[in-house]
Amino acid sequence: MKCYKFLLFCVPLLLGPATAQAQWEIESDPTAYALKGFSAHVGHPVFNGQLRLQVGAFGAETPEWIHGNSGFTENSRGGTFKIDYFPLRPLSSLFVGADSNYSRVRYELDQNERTYRNIVGLGPRVGYRFNVGKHLYVSPWASVDYQFNAKDVSISGKTFHEKEYSVFPAVHVGWRF
């Protein structure tokens, strides 16, 4: 958790001098909270809003009906860096970009035995940003990440099959300052 706090503290400080008069944004994915987790992101537009950089922290417990491994609980916590390009209008409408993330994943079998793995993902993302007034926005998006070190996990003779590719849909709600 210290790593995420460090990232969220340092990135704005490093970008600050170059972007002293620019806008900052905060956003979150409400679904993460429904999945016993959290989501907090800080975004910053560059190049007149055609590009946007974002860092964040996340966590969630993936439901069994999504991961498909009977008897297992999968819980992840991590950090992310995203870059998006808005080809039509600055900070509005269609965006395409790249999503990178680091996750510390806990695999638990029948609430008795557990093991942990570190997973790094990278891939493209696409979404649409709806601006609601001057400050509020909603951004549905999806990414397909390659999980570089995804391997099956075995606990007590049972195997959790980890996929190499992760398809991740989300809806972020944000506020521009």
Fold and architecture overview:
- The strands form two sheets. This protein has an eight-stranded antiparallel beta barrel with strand order 1-2-3-4-5-6-7-10. The protein has a two-stranded antiparallel ribbon with strand order 8-9.
- The model has no long low-confidence stretch (mean pLDDT 90).
- The two termini are 26 Å apart.
- Helices cover 13% and strands 60% of the residues.
- The chain has helices at residues 2-15, 30-34, 64-67; strands spanning 25-28, 38-46, 51-62, 72-85, 93-109, 113-132, 136-147, 153-155, 158-160, 165-176.
- It is mostly beta strands and 177 residues long.
- A hairpin with a 4-residue loop joins strand 2 (38-46) and strand 3.
- It has a single domain (2-176), classed as Porin.
Based on the model shown, name its key terms:
elongated, single chain, 8-stranded antiparallel barrel, two-stranded antiparallel sheet, 10 strands, 177 residues, mainly beta, Porin
Write a brief structural summary:
By secondary structure, this protein is mainly beta. It contains three helices and ten strands, in the order αβαββαβββββββ.
Mean pLDDT: 90
CATH topology: Porin
Give the overall silhouette.
elongated
In helices, the fraction of residues equals: 10-25%
Structural class: mainly beta
Low-confidence runs: none
**Number of strand elements:** 10
Largest sheet: 8 strands, antiparallel, barrel
Topology order in helix (H) and strand (E) letters: HEHEEHEEEEEEE
Radius of gyration: 17 Å
